[in-house]
Amino acid sequence: MIKGFDMNDRRFEPDDCGSFAISKSKRSFEGAFGRKIGDEAAPHFLVWDGQPNEEDDRKGHKKRDSHPIINKFEPDDCGSFAISKSKRSFEGAFGRKIGDEAAPHFLVWDGQPNEEDDRKGHKKRDSHPIINKSESDEESYIVGWPPITSSRKRELILQNNGGRVGHHQIIKKRTPLISMAKNIMISGSNSSSPSIINNSMYVKVKMEGVPIARKIDLTLHNSYYSLKNALITMFTNSYDGKCTEDRGSYRLTYQDKEGDWLLAGDVPWKSFIKSVQRLEIARNGG
Amino acid sequence: MLRMASSFPEEVLEHVFSFIQSDADRNSISMVCKSWYEIERWCRRRIFVGNCYAVSPRMVIRRFPDVRSIELKGKPHFADFNLVPEGWGGYVDPWISAMAMAYPWLEEIRLKRMVVTDESLELIAKSFKNFKALVLSSCEGFSTDGLAAIAANCRNLRELDLRESDVDDLSGHWLSHFPDTYTSLVSLDISCLGSEMSFTALERLVGRCPNLRSLRLNRTVPIEKLANLLRQAPQLVELGTGAYSAELRPEVFSNLAGALSGCKELKSLSGFWEAVPAYLPAVYSICPGLTSLNLSYAAIQSPHLIKLLSHCPKLQRLWVLDYIEDVGLEALAASCKDLRELRVFPSDPFVAEPNVSLTEQGLVSVSGGCPKLHSVLYFCRQMSNAALTTIARNRPNFTCFRLCIIEPRTPDYLTLGPLDAGFGAIVEHCKDLRRLSVSGLLTDRAFEYIGTYAKKLEMLSLAFAGDSDLGLHHVLSGCENLRKLEIRDCPFGDKALLANAAKLETMRSLWMSSCMVSYGACKLLGQKMPRLNVEVIDERGPPDTRPESCPVEKLYIYRSVAGPRFDMPGFVWTMDEDSSALRLS
């Protein structure tokens, strides 16, 4: 019974002592990993490259030992996307001589491109994976990790007080990166127009009487009610028995593309999203 | 050949078959002989299609001409975590169009992770006169306009359940499309919607449907109004509240507590967005009968949770945030001896430092104290082999064990070594384990254990684990009942995949993203295995613009009798039998 085959189209027989086609694969893996994929026409992003060369090893060590997460995504980064580059895992794979252990049934391919990486791989393997605290405060970011759904993530953001500045983890809808690149509008933090990052859409919000403006991600909301609630929560900053009755007595206004200030709620949400530039919220009356 | 079948009237056989509902049994029946196949196919009423691309609508309709209930699943599970790019597929429209003509008596449609359009919803509303149940779980692509069509036309609708769907919420007005003559609602779940609805319309709807058993509101229904609704529906068995917060006012509290105490059948509670501790005691009166509690959207601290749980001795299912902490889980283990399922979600997973005191100890306590516990989803920041071994020994009856240690590749915090032995203990002791998600630092040895012991395992999720192809080989060659395998960021490449190609035809699907499978291997697999659809998903552009040895970004392989699909977006390619042609959509 045929279980499978290998890259050379040889049939893999169950009693084949588990030899994982040692011969030719070395080159194919070198080909796969020795090559900087980013060199090619991959216009917008730094893609994982698992080069097991010396330079990268050092860099890898220094930065985040076993921390697989790449990208602190800077809002000004012209399109270097956060793609999970589990560099360490690949070097670990290469560096480790699996055949060394009591691998009971199989001669396992060891596809180490060269001896040097052995040592480096070993070094890495022993290192304790902790997040390098000396890096920026911005949280590290892997797509889809930890594995919680978008609706849950949105709720956590709301609970943790509207999120910290530069909170990019929430991707409401995962659009293909190629088309996302076109959607990216890079704006500095002082700009008054919405900044769209990773399919989020941040606008500045000012609350009357509060000196510091905040930013809110409009893609997390699909109604005025939801937006208003989030803003009130963000600015009032307390969860114990905050009076929901008061939510009616806040007035939400927005500045549209023409620069006019309008009362929020008159136009359908979708039109609002297209034209809103910034928001202001104020208590009604006295 | 003896004509035995004809000596037994068809009607009798049909009647006998009607007692057999499980798909597996029905499939067995259909293979006894040709006439049984024929009889069975005419009287099968319920169809489950685990992968909508495994078979075509036409094929289903041809074999089963009189179906009343269909369940379809679309996107792979990892779509929940944004790993499947938008536009990948999972469109239900072709199914609805085909069924609109073939199954006029269709009563139930259940969809999971599919793209649904308003047009489809309108077609459903118009085509199926006896339509009773629409369940859209984690679906998207439709708006409240489509819901309005359903509400307006489906006179016999019993169930409308939108759980976790992403709905284009144009307004809450759709609810008013249920005519005044409509009274058959049994179950309504609109918890995913964002817009405010006319409360009067909602109240009237609830009031005129005497069979309403399950009502899950959205967060725009304020707590002050909850009591009114409950008084209209004291027969409720399941309730999902709206936003559960307000300034504490005695009359609001007592009104709510009173209304709740009138719901003598209430077994399940959920919702609790923005919950404040002050209003929790309002539910105490129904806690003694409560079997299911979902507080996973409530930022309530452990003292309040402990108090609440002490009132719930019959609790079977608990979903909660990690605010419950180890101390709360210990209390849970003491108060809720009937607990079957526990899910602990992270309250702040994006920071390195723990914000709550929840460790492996909480899970150890619960596994020790709750003899019926068989299903766990647990997010935490530290774990040890010792704890996992204790858990495994305490609770060999686990059927579903999902552990997510938040930081990838976290080792045993005591020994600083891999967690291989711990997960090994889990699979060794829990002989009925059907679903497993692993995390933390794991070598190929962990997969050796899984392949050796996890013989009943059907679904396995791997992330940031393993050292080499040997790991994948252990799983593919060892786990006899494996149906779904999803892998991300593991150093698995061509060899194990190709060497176990035949295994893939025995599974529903395999997902691999950010692994090391080369384009060449994908092509080879597609060529050699005509009954598999090998989909390469790559947003960097066509894979043949890169060397064959270059790894693909994402790979989704599934068995199919329908052949390659034709609705793929520009970043998905199916590896064809004809190796020189790549199907570009």
Spell out the key features of this protein.
heterodimer; A: 286 residues; alpha+beta; Ubiquitin-like (UB roll); six-stranded mixed sheet; two-stranded antiparallel ribbon; 8 helices; 8 strands; 28% helix; B: 585 residues; alpha/beta; 22-stranded mixed sheet; two-stranded parallel ribbon; disordered C terminus
Question: Can you offer a commentary on this structure?
Answer:
Chain A: Pfam families: AUX_IAA. The complex is a heterodimer of chains A (286) and B (585). In chain A, the strands form two sheets. In chain A, strands 3, 4, 5, 6, 7 and 8 form a six-stranded mixed beta sheet that branches. Chain A contains eight helices and eight strands, in the order ββααααααβββαββαβ. In chain A, β1 and β2 form a beta hairpin. The relative contact order of chain A is 0.10. Chain A is an alpha+beta fold and 286 residues long. Chain B is α/β, with parallel strands linked by helices and 585 residues long. Chain B is 31% helix and 17% strand. Chain B has a 22-stranded mixed beta sheet. A two-stranded parallel ribbon of chain B has the order 5-7.
The CATH homologous superfamily of the domain at 202-283 in chain A is termed Phosphatidylinositol 3-kinase Catalytic Subunit, Chain A, domain 1
Global geometry of chain A = elongated
Oligomer: heterodimer
**Biggest β-sheet strands, sense, barrel of chain A:** 6 strands, mixed
The succession of helices and strands of chain A, N to C, reads EEHHHHHHEEEHEEHE
Strand content of chain B: 15-25%
Radius of gyration of chain A: 26 Å
Strand content of chain A: 5-15%
The span between the termini of chain B is 50 Å
Instruction: Report the helical percentage of chain A.
Output: 25-40%
Subcellular location (chain A): Nucleus
Main location (chain A): nucleus
Region (Disordered) (chain A): 44-71, 110-136
GO biological process, one term (chain A): regulation of DNA-templated transcription
